[in-house]
Amino acid sequence: MASIEYAVHLLRQISRYLKRYENLLAVVGALYASKISFIVAWKVLQGLRVYILSRLRQQDFKGYGKWAVITGGTDGIGKAYCREFANRGLNIVIISRSLDKLKATAEELERDFHISTSIIQADFTEGTRSLYTNIKEQLADKEIGILVNNVGVMYDYPSYFLEVPETKLWQCINVNMTSVTMMTYMVLPQMVQRGKGLVINMSSISSFYPLPLMAAYSASKAYVDWFSRALTYEYKSKGINIQTLLPSYISTKLTRFSHFLQRPGYIVPDAHSFVNSALCTVGTTSRTTGYWTHGLQWWWYEHMPESLWNLSSWVLLQMLDSGELHLDLQKNKHS
Question: Which has the closest alpha carbon to 99: 76, 78, 119?
Fold first, then answer.
């Protein structure tokens, strides 16, 4: 009984104490609420500017230069970029591994848009110096205004690190990281010399936090993001526009591990819808998801602690899997 009386007495003392600072606490609360309201309003306005108002601008991509170079340009996002830039009157250099696909894509672009094309067969999984020397020689006579570092690889399906084949890990390094670095290194000098150029680097929303079950892939895309942001600071004053794209899932061959992701929609756009949206953001922002629903996902992740990200992505990747995920959950439970 005495303890209850003491607790009541203590609460009364605390109440009297807080009343002394009631006005101060009200001011602090109002300031905090104002801060949150301002942040939300600013994010909404930014979203409108990037994803809505940017569509009202007519951009002259030919002003960057005569040729656009797209890596991984025979499928998915890369091919969509080829078609969009060709539709805007640029000549296209397509770099990819399959010679048959290169020829077919080049013929398609020339037939549909009446532009010139050039094809370079290159297997970026090699990652050798001679590979990039060969590409550089074939680009030497062209005025390159735009470079799209699109080529990339993902895990065949979400996996524990030790279950990923060694060849796939090397691909994540050579294709996702080395190609972006070296392609930019060979093309950037002529852009700097002319004082204009556009480099679009394909990162991923998976780089926001480390991504369990996609560890090496997520890390490789984080490299692309940081690399691009640093170059933006270095070369913006020289007239070079470097944009980092951090999309969420897009319905392409890279997401074939999931039946759900193969069905395009507002949450998972197809390559054409994504590229059409992303191109509108060029010149508006140097770092974006490129697509409005992906922007909403990014905003949500900004307010999510890393522990919750890990748990939610862990569950999501297993839900998205089409039944091919080789995880022994009984043997690998978290303590």
Answer: 119
Contacts of 235 (CB under 8 A, 6+ apart): 188, 192, 242
217 is catalytic: yes
Entry field: residues in the chain: 335
What is the structure's pLDDT at 49? 75
Cβ atoms within 10 Å, residue 28 = 11
pLDDT digits (tens, 9 = 90+) for 77-96: 999 999 999 999 999 999 99
Nearest to 83 by CA among 148, 39, 129: 148
Coil, strand or helix at 195: coil
User: Whole-angstrom Cα distance, residue 192 to residue 235?
Assistant: 8
Per-residue pLDDT of 286-307, as tens digits, reads 999 999 999 988 888 888 888 8
CA distances from 162 to 172, 221, 310 (A): 15, 19, 18
β-pairing, 91-96 vs 67-71, is parallel
Q: Hey, which residues does 282 pair with through a beta bridge?
A: none
What is the Cα–Cα distance from 198 to 241, expressed in whole angstroms? Answer: 5
Confidence of residue 257 (pLDDT cuts 50, 70, 90): low
Beta-carbon-side half-sphere exposure of residue 75 (alpha carbons within 13 Å): 16
Q: How many of the other CB atoms lie within 10 Å of CB of 13?
A: 10
- Give CA–CA dist 192/215, Å, rounded: 35
Q: Which residues pair with 78 in a beta bridge?
A: none
**Is pLDDT larger for residue 335 or for residue 3?**
3
Catalytic residue among 217, 223, 235, 249: 217
Average pLDDT over residues 5-18: 67
